[in-house]
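This part of the workshop introduces the protein records we will be handling. The structure tokens are whole numbers drawn from a learned vocabulary of backbone shapes. The record below serves as our worked example for the rest of this section.

===
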Amino acid sequence: MNRDEFLRAATAAAQEASRASGLPAGVTIAQAILESNWGESRLAREAHNYFGIKTHGDHPWIELPTWEVLHGLPVRVRARFARYDSMAACFADRDRIVLRAACYAAARACAADPEAFARALAAHWATDPKYAEKLLAIHREFELDKINIHHGDTEARRS
């Protein structure tokens, strides 16, 4: 899948998930680009996991090496990541996680503001201290704010 194909597929999946969740689709797309390297990561190719979502509950999984930042230093570790049947299923689960996990309450509270949402999400999604800036740089470069669906309310829907 080339970048244009990835962007089209990710846009469709993000907009579908956003219609149900109320979360900003443009940030979801930027996050998928960043986390999966445009769908080229092994995790994306083998498990349809575009966000580095770790396994949860009895969800199917795949174990792969990954980098985490611990005490300011990058460390190579093995982790169990959730495996999905499709891009749409992964995007929907990502939004479900953001809507339900207590650590994302601040992100949910500012879902109508994509930049504030991205910063609040980044505070808990990744260990990379530059994650928010990387996410927002992609969001700006590809003008993904134009993709966000406006739901008429200022708060993400609660599932």
Q: What stands out?
A: The longest strand covers residues 61-70.
